[in-house]
Amino acid sequence: MSHDFAFIQTAPGRVFVGWGPFEQLPFRRPERPAFFIADFFLDDPHPWRHPAAWEEMAFEELASRFDDYGAPRVAWDPPSLPDFTALFDSAHAAMIRGEFQKIVPVIFETGRFVERGEWWRWFFTRLSQLPPGMRAYGYSYQNHGIIGATPELLFEAYARGYRTMALAGTRPVARAEELTRNPKELREHRFVVDDIVRRLAPFGNIEIGPLGTLRLPKIAHLITPIFFSESGGSERMSFSEMVRRLHPTAALGVSPRSEAGERWLREADRGVKRRTFGAPFGLEREDRSALALVAIRNLEWSGERVRVGSGAGMLMESRVELEWKELREKRGQVKALFGVDAHVEAFA
Length: 348
Known about the structure:
Elements: E1 5-11, E2 14-19, E3 23-25, E4 34-37, E5 48-50, E6 53-58, H1 59-64, E7 74-77, H2 81-96, E8 102-103, E9 106-113, H3 120-127, E10 135-141, E11 144-150, E12 153-158, E13 161-172, H4 183-200, E14 204-208, E15 212-215, E16 219-230, H5 239-246, E17 254-255, H6 259-272, E18 280-284, E19 290-294, E20 298-302, E21 305-311, E22 314-315, H7 320-337
Antiparallel strand pairs: 1-2, 1-10, 2-6, 3-5, 4-5, 4-18, 7-9, 8-17, 8-22, 9-21, 10-11, 11-20, 12-13, 12-19, 13-16, 14-16, 15-16, 18-19, 20-21
């Protein structure tokens, strides 16, 4: 069995898996399914990964394909509050200059595996118990990989059009009811709704669903479902066109979208290197059925090094200590989900 593979959850408990070797191209071959695995800034000229073989199965069956190494042990190194404060202050200054109204700084907590092992069986067994509202995805290539369970859908194509969502505003799940009463969270969420509508409205019809609360293990978010159908007679947008139309929404990027905002994000990236964090991660099949997730809430590793990222929507009224706490809570959810939340001392 190839150790190069990619996967994405297609339904509750079900996963589509592609086995390597992969053919990387700037387009999808129409007769084959392919994964769309991009970097956050969509700079990769060859985002389409065509597997040599593919199948769909239950998570439990996928887990059984791998040896049992038990739970991974990670020695974590907490991120630096001064480093985040510098990002925060830079974004705040740009807001004062009127360059944007919202932006999403990202930071990473790094660590290392205390011992090496193939923990895919452990991870897939955990994903088989994933709660509603989250979708799993990931890949393994040589000595690096990523595994995640995201609550955020970039888009999903279905018979009459597309569904997407605005997902922004965060509270610990025990205080979820505060979300619909908090002006800052509601304003942050509205930026995301307005951004998606602005990007899609010229191309068809939009239906905005009711505002709700998505309750996940440990944390909760404001969520608004959005449905989009292209104008009658117009040719359906390609997968890549939909990605470029939507990504990054204001939930992960900047509002309003501007050159100044992208410059800020790229400059910040020189220090943190987002890579695939927050990027589109998707699948398109031969019949053009398509699914694109937002690659957040994940573990990423290369060799023995591992990291978990988190981002927080920042507005003019944001406070650094509250954003810092939200970032920690989001990373805590990921570490608990994959069973790597207990800090261990690295061996000498």
